[in-house]
Amino acid sequence: MSGGPILTLSGNGVFIIKKVKYKIKKTEQTKMSILIDQNTKVLVQGITGKEGIRATQFMQSYKTNVVAGVRPGKGGEVVEGVPVYNSCKEAMHAHPDITLSVIIVPAKGAKDAIIEALEANIKLINVITENIPIKDTAYCVALAKKHNAKIIGPTSIGIISPGKTKVGMIGGLTSEQFSKGNVGIISKSGGMSSETASILTKAGIGQSTVVGCGADVIMGTNYVELLEIFKSDKETKVIVIFGEIGGTAEEDAAEYIKQTHYPKPVIAFISGKFAEMLPSTTLGHAGAIIEEGKGTRTAKVAALNSAGVHVVEVHHEIVKKVKDLLK
Amino acid sequence: MKLYEFEGKQLLKEAGINVPEGYVIENSREIQEPFGEVIIKAQTLEGKRGKAGLIKAAKTKEEIETITKQLLNKHHGFETVKKLLIETKCKIKNEFYIAITYDTKTRNPVIIASSQGGVDIEETKNIHPSKVIVEQINILNGITEHEAKHILHKAGITNLQMIPLLEKLYKLFMDKDMKLLEINPLIETETHDLIAADAKIILDDDALFRQNIQFPPRVGIGREKTQAETAANKVNELDHRGIAGKTYIELNGDIGILASGGGASITAVDALISYNQKPANYTEYSGNPSPEKVEALTRIVMSNPNLKGLFIVGAKANFTQIHETIAAIIKVIKELKPEYPIVFRRAGPGDTEAKALVEKTAKELQLDMEWYGDETPITVAAKRMAEKIKERRRCAC
């Protein structure tokens, strides 16, 4: 999409000229599914840790091609049949076909791990690690942009394209909540990405790709960018967003859907009714200026509604909505 | 971690940024003889202190004493005023506004600046949008002198000392891992000196591990913790296996909550609210916590005398051993034998055993307990909980 001016009709019937703000590179259309598929070759950074081993087992249970692991000082070891290297550079040297790195290191080391992956020319990085300092995430996201790479996460549960492959922790050992189909899911919550897929699967509705985008203040890849990727995916007919309060990602998505006349129906569920009963924890005036009254559940629901997104009030209503829209 | 004004000013001072001369008191015995006019500011985490009458001026020691009596122990939102900051009043020529934070949309640090500080900056932005400027900073490069000049020029701030000051503030924001650094007003005195007359700082909790910050811990929601909340947090520290009770918020309702997983627990509590029910607490356990932790957390939730129901809920677990955690909860239920309805919605490793245990216990002790697995959505189970509460109310009439 280019950044030229477009004409839109505002709420009160006045035509306004607005500059389109989103400049997103065209995604590859040749792939079978978005982000990952059978050809995905995975590197696991932090493979020797408890969580790293678990993630490797989870991925291998779905026949994901985990080709290498990294842990400084543990080069030469083998974890779950996967060779371990001291650095991303070494791993890339031995396995130049690596397409994606799963980062599952402690928060303290996450920034260095991401930088290492970027410098080794890995273009897709799925960050499972939680509690990464904002400064580190902001730095890595800016650096990824410079390297023309994508970060999914932090605090991502992983990504799954049912029937094809999966990366990260998503689905555990069985992945039985997921089934192949035409619903794309983008979820801030890890647990609820599985749960959302699960209620659909139980109703006989499969998923194309489920992405745990994480709920950090700074998201490596946000809804707008993921919607853009889902847009050209032939397998995806409906997109479900599981949103949470805080930040402006949902409002930005609403604006994007409105501005681009997004061609696929989008369903959204925003959690956080309960959180609005609590005292405000926003960033004060500066936060208010940046977010312009956004961030609350009320604001997100209003923005999504006005963009024609199908907002459901209770989570399980997603099923009926998807059924109606797939008809 | 939100800082009190006096704590924030301490950080500013250490970074070589001027703040008014002042001291903190906790009682009237600590009041000093003033040299000229002073400003007395109640120290609270919640804002809008001026409008709430928590900032006052005084000239004599007697006046300070009177105001101290008025302000100490006054309530402000969820807080009680425990400390006052007494500062020399500055001679004001101009008041500026400077803030640094992250823009969640662009994912960059941003500097917000205005030559019209001292007042509600949101109002200024509404009335004169051009008077409040927002500049995106490239975190890879930091802020250059050229950029600082550009920002200040755009904001209409001409004081040349502002250039190094802005660079200092940006450095401090980054060095201390802040989420927000807001100074309103930043005072320009008659002699062109720049003084930070207020400081609103939020530190990034996730970065505290690498900061040498000595400020005491505080509750996220800006009030002191209740007994149950403190007890639940202690439960989490029993061992290092999983999480249980790290987050615990006491609420005014009557349905006890024992939820697993952040997203699922909020979805479940939201659903209860959608079905006109009120949770008595919010808490969460996850990551396969030890049975001891789950048992202790259950005791805290069930110690609430107002409970009319108990909802044990979670998304399908990847590796939390359901039979172990449910057995820990059942242990407490067996002891307390509550009359109110209990609804379980759990799935994951060991859920068949857990279901059998719940059903067996319900039969043996004649308890009103229902089990749902992942054939039933979380929110449908919440609806069932709500229905059971309503049935009971009808029966009681």
Characterize the structure shown.
The complex is a heterodimer of chains A (327) and B (397). Helices cover 32% and strands 23% of the residues of chain A. Chain A is built from ten helices and 16 strands. Chain A has a seven-stranded mixed beta sheet, with helices on both faces. A seven-stranded mixed beta sheet of chain A has the order 11-10-13-12-14-15-16, sandwiched between helices. Chain B has 397 residues and is of the alpha+beta class. Chain B is built from eleven helices and 18 strands. In chain B, a hairpin with a 6-residue loop joins strand 7 and strand 8. At the A-B interface, helix 4, helix 5 and helix 8 of A face strand 7, strand 8, helix 3, strand 10 and helix 7 of B.
List keywords for this structure.
heterodimer; A: 327 residues; alpha/beta; seven-stranded mixed beta sheet; disordered N terminus; B: 397 residues; alpha+beta; four-stranded antiparallel beta sheet; 11 helices; 24% strand; elongated
